[in-house]
């Protein structure tokens, strides 16, 4: 066999696969996965957007509140992955239909592509800043392309290795973050940060900050079931993901808000979402944080994007390697558009508009309409209880569109005093529930959710009824974002969550 064929076969054999995955990890390991994943430069730089648009204490308060609200959605969607063994986008088949789920999957690929562009640009701009200081040569587009090309190569050849070292990178990043906090608070007292004047012209309000922080959690929720289906039990997944996500997000965003406040106190200009401003203030150690976090997280983003595409259906499976190269080429070309960094806030608004309704629908469908149990029909290519009309649930699609429009209207046309994210979530959840009640779709009784990996062994549908669809059981193995590798050697299989 040629080297191409050997590599292609290896990637196909070890990529995520379509069926459910049985988790084996405890709360501590799940917490470390989330901590490592979210200690990323984009989260840190999001915090730099808020100050001095709002006061430093207000920014910190909204960061904590928004992280808790958005984190609740993240944990509940992640728990669906623990209970079923399915990835987030596979779970959309339950509410949107076996074919209707292609719509949120397509949106997810677009969003992940956007994340890969943004992170590559941030790494490239940072490397360019250091090179320009040392040599005088400046070409940020070139360095962005080189960084993204390295990411694509790692996604194809070394994502498992990156996943294993990512928790150790998180320890390094935490250490440098602690050093930045120390520099800031030993240079100026906390009272000076609290007294920093607010700049109304920056265009921020506490509610706007809250919306962006919640949108950040929503952007991570697209991967929540991927991570949390690795958990041994529901409690491990919920505690680990809740603690890991909240701690990493609050730490990273608070550092960004504190760092930009330090720059202002030191006589500099507050330029949001620009890593070079912070590197100039705190030196090369912060540049190391930017580069390492991008290499680790962006590798898993690209790998997850490819896996989302190749695992769309259980039957006609695309080959991993050519798909990775095509999407990788698009991600490299997109990394040249540095002007997109100036539109990062709009990018987060787009994520919220697209996925807040999706997750509202998913949560209502699973926990209320389906009574917390999906059947093995969700693993089929066609037919069964999730076929709806030609494979699409028109009600879910309609509610999704209405929710997205509501979010955009409340953001850009009729700004809401309570923001856009919370009203959009409530409206989408209420509309979907009303449809389920009117259509008499709510499942009677209290079906038991059996892990869908058991359907292949027992011939049951995962909720107690017989079914012919079999799901391959998978224990461990690389997950969509490499979290199994990050967690280390799989432990012994445990009982399925009830």
TrEMBL record:
Subcellular location: Membrane
Organism domain of life: Bacteria
Comp. bias (Basic and acidic residues): 489-498
Pfam families: Transp_cyt_pur
Signal peptide: none
GO cellular-component term (any): plasma membrane
Topological category with respect to the lipid bilayer: Multi-pass membrane protein
Keyword annotations: Membrane, Transmembrane, Transmembrane helix, Transport
TM helices/strands, residue ranges: 30-50, 56-77, 98-117, 137-157, 169-191, 203-223, 244-265, 277-306, 318-341, 347-369, 390-414, 420-439
Positions of the UniProt region annotated as Disordered: 453-498
Entry's family note: Belongs to the purine-cytosine permease (2.A.39) family.
Protein name from the UniProt record: Purine-cytosine transporter
Organism, as annotated: Kocuria rosea subsp. polaris
Lineage: Bacteria, Bacillati, Actinomycetota, Actinomycetes, Micrococcales
């Amino acid at each position: 066999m040629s080297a191409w064929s050997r590599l292609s076969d290896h990637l196909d054999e070890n990529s995520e696969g379509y069926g459910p995955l049985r988790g084996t990890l405890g709360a501590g390991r799940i917490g470390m996965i989330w901590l490592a994943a979210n200690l990323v430069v984009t989260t840190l730089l999001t915090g730099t957007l808020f100050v001095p648009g709002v006061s430093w204490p207000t920014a910190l308060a909204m960061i904590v509140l928004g992280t808790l609200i958005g984190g609740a959605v993240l944990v509940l969607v992640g728990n669906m992955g623990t209970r079923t063994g399915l990835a987030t986008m596979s779970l959309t088949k339950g509410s949107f239909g076996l074919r209707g789920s292609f719509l949120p999957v397509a949106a997810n690929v677009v969003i992940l592509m956007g994340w890969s562009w943004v992170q590559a640009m941030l790494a490239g701009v940072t490397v360019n800043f250091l090179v320009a200081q040392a040599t005088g040569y400046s070409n940020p587009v070139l360095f962005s392309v080189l960084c993204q090309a390295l990411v694509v190569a790692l996604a194809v050849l070394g994502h498992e290795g990156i996943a294993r070292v990512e928790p150790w990178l998180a320890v390094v990043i935490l250490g440098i973050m602690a050093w930045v906090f120390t520099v800031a608070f030993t240079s100026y007292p906390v009272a000076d940060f609290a007294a920093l004047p607010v700049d109304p012209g920056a265009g921020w309000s506490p509610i706007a900050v809250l919306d962006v922080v919640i949108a950040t959690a929503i952007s991570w929720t697209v991967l929540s079931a991927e991570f949390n289906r690795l958990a041994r039990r529901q409690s491990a997944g919920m505690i680990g993901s809740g603690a890991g996500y909240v701690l990493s997000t609050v730490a990273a965003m608070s550092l960004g808000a504190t760092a930009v406040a330090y720059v202002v106190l030191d006589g500099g200009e507050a330029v949001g979402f620009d890593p070079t401003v912070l590197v100039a203030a705190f030196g090369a150690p912060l540049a190391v944080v930017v580069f390492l976090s991008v290499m680790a997280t962006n590798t898993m983003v690209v790998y997850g994007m490819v896996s989302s595409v190749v695992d769309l259906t259980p039957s006609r499976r695309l080959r991993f390697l050519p798909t990775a190269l095509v999407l990788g080429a698009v991600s490299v070309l997109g990394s040249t558009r540095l002007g997109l960094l100036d539109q990062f806030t709009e990018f987060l608004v787009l994520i919220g508009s697209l996925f807040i309704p999706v997750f509202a629908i998913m949560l209502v469908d699973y926990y209320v309409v389906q009574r917390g149990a999906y059947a093995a029909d969700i693993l089929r290519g066609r037919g069964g209880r999730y076929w709806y009309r030609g494979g699409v649930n028109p009600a879910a699609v309609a509610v999704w569109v209405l929710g997205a429009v509501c979010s955009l209207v409340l953001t850009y046309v009729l700004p809401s005093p309570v923001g856009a994210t919370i009203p959009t979530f409530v409206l989408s959840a209420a509309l979907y529930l009303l449809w389920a009640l009117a259509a008499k779709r709510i499942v009677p009784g209290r079906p038991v959710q059996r892990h869908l990996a058991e359907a292949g062994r027992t011939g049951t549908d995962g909720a107690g009824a017989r079914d012919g669809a079999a799901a391959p059981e998978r224990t461990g193995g690389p997950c969509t974002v490499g979290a199994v590798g990050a967690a280390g050697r799989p432990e012994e299989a445990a009982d399925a969550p009830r």
